[in-house]
Amino acid sequence: MSDLASLTKSVPNQQRSVRPEHPERRQARAGMVLFAPALVLLILILIVPVGVAALLSLTDYTLGRPSIDWVGLRNYIDIFTGSSYRKMIVATVLYVALVVPASVFLGLGAALLIRSLNVGQSFYKTVYFLPVMASLLAMAIVWEFALHPTLGIVNRTLAMGCGTPLELWSWFARSCIDGFPLWLGDRDYALYTLAFIGIWQSFGFNMVLYLAGLTSVPNDLYGAASMDGVKRGWERFRLITWPMLGPTTVFVVTITMIRSFQVFDTVEALTHGGPAKSTYVMIYAIYEKGIAQNLVGLGAAITILFLAFVMLISVAQRRFVERKVHYQ
Amino acid sequence: MTYRFSTRQTLAHGLLILGAIIVLLPFYVMISTSFKSPAEIATGTGGVFGSQALFPDPTCLALGGNETECLVRPVRDNYSQAFTAAPLWRYLLNGVIVTASIFVLQTLIAVPAAYALAKLKFWGRDAAFALVLFCLLIPVHAIALPLYLMLAKLGLTNSYAALILPWIVSAFGIFLMRQFFMTVPDDLIDAARMDGMGEFAIIWRVMLPTAIPALLAFAIFSVVAHWNDYFWPRIVITGDRSLFTPPLGLREFKGDLGGDVYGPMMASATIIAVPLVVAFLLAQRRFIDGITLSGMK
Predict the structure, then answer these.
(1) Residues B59 and B201 in one domain
(2) Could you give the number of structural domains in chain B?
(3) Is A220 helix (H, G, I), strand (E, B) or coil?
(4) B54-92 burial by CB neighbour count: b if 16+ within 10 A, else e?
(5) Mutation for testing the A interface, residue in B121, B200, B277 having most A CBs under 10 Å
(6) Residue numbers of chain B with a pLDDT score lower than 70
(7) Beta carbons of A35 and B122 less than 8 Å apart
(8) B41 in A contact zone (CB under 8 Å)
(9) Residues A75-323, CATH architecture
């Protein structure tokens, strides 16, 4: 800090002094001083931990024990051969594969519908954006209550459909007899239920990004297309809107992927990775193994695997943006 | 052309209203349940806001009170229990302390760094910017385990420092402010230098005032993310209730108590969600810009 103070004070004197310091050199020094705190912190908080995780993933370290042994790649071999870790990869990938397309297309669909309205645009925009703002943990707990097998509004509402033509749907008829699903307590439904909450929470964010993308599509393009005989809505979408939204889509897909890879709040609060590890996603596994059970080596190995996934997505996006998305 | 009540418009409204009902369902469940008595919750009756019939409070009865003394109104009982069953005010205060400290420190560190990257020529500047871009790729949540171990080695877990420190440098904040400062004309800075201002004074008295919109957007982005964050507090705060942030407090509520406390729990959830939701409704455009900032690249 004293460096910065002297820097500030010294300037007026320099202007009056006979032999002013070279302004470029002064600027260079100021630049380094001003960037230094950020540099130190970026390295300590972001770069060093990656290195620490990489090293620890090759050991059997646990917090509180003095000894530490090198185990080579054993943690990684455990991950790729153990059945619970195979379930972890399956759950994570399935969750991402469910959330990303649904959230992206619902976001796009909502944006297109809202743009087509004459009245009420901002009303729907506000409503759909609310879940993005609200604490996901709080809303997860509310969803859990809404999905409660007996007290919840969801199963109560579904039960009202019994005895109506909805029973023609065999799943519905069977549920009317055997009871509606336990949702979060049933291994066949739990991951889908969490994915539903994830989609519910995230598509409003994508909608806003698409609305911004849509405003940048020049109106003359639609005029020109209609001169060329492109009149139907679907054709206009396929030939103009969709290609023009290319850069937005690449960005929306990437950010939704990275965020859904990091799902934790709903898993920790509602399922603890169960039932039968069906919702055992990676970030939850890092928390459970590395922190709750103090198996640091394993947790670190999952961390490195996770970072590899995330970096791969980001690098793929940057490549894609550079090469493919040049429509203008 | 489409008219206000054309079939197409009606169809679009129909679809969007259906979506809105699903989106708003949990908000409705949360608020409605927070108004109801345990009996109404158990039977699914009471309409939107419950009948608000007085009922005897079981804890009061257990303490030896008689029926008439112990009668309470459900909505009052739920909200007062939210504050008495757990130190909710303390949690809310912690939330404010943590989010405010994070934002102030992020600004103090990011703004000078961004100015240096945008407007000063120094040795290694390109490498410095490349480092910022690389750090953008690392989600802090992903490196939670090594960060936790480092804090544990320093004896800092279960402290405000643990909640705040990992977030004080935001690669995204630096990147964003740098992009903004690039658009500020050099002449403005040269004029300030002519007037005898030092670089430090230029940052806070010339650059920052021009960057208020960007900074405000970043503030919203940062505050929303950290007020709602559950993962990181969950890791570094173990047991010490006086350090709980609002989401941790709510989670404890759920973990502690049995099936008949949905009323107070939903009241707590409402209290925790309300500040941001109200702020959002009052300043929608700013919030949407702030939270979708990451779309600006």
Answers:
(1) no
(2) 2
(3) helix
(4) ebebeebeeeeeeeeebebebbebbbebbeebbebeebb
(5) B200
(6) 1-5, 255-260, 293-297
(7) yes
(8) yes
(9) Orthogonal Bundle (1.10)
- How far apart are alpha carbons B60 and B56 in whole angstroms? 8
The pLDDT of residue B258 is: 55
* B1 occurs within a structural domain: no
Same domain, B23 and B148: no
Query: So what's the pLDDT on residue A142?
Result: 92
CA gap B73, B80 in Å, rounded: 11
The residue among B36, B55, B81 that closes a domain is B81
Interface of B with A in 165-184 (CB under 8 A): 165-166, 168-169, 171, 174
Q: What ipTM was reported for this prediction?
A: 0.87
Tens digit of each residue's pLDDT (9 = 90 or more) over A144-201: 989 988 888 888 888 888 878 887 888 888 888 888 888 888 888 999 999 999 999 9
Q: Are residues B74 and B193 in the same domain?
A: no
Residue A17 has pLDDT above 70, yes or no: no
Looking at residue A204, what is its pLDDT? Answer: 92
Contact B143 A53 (CB under 8 A): yes
The more confident residue out of A231 and A217 is: A217
Distance from CA of B64 to the nearest CA of A (A): 30
Q: Please give the backbone phi and psi of residue B72, each rounded to the nearest 5 degrees, phi first.
A: -135, 155
Distance from C-alpha of A263 to C-alpha of A283, rounded to nearest angstrom: 7
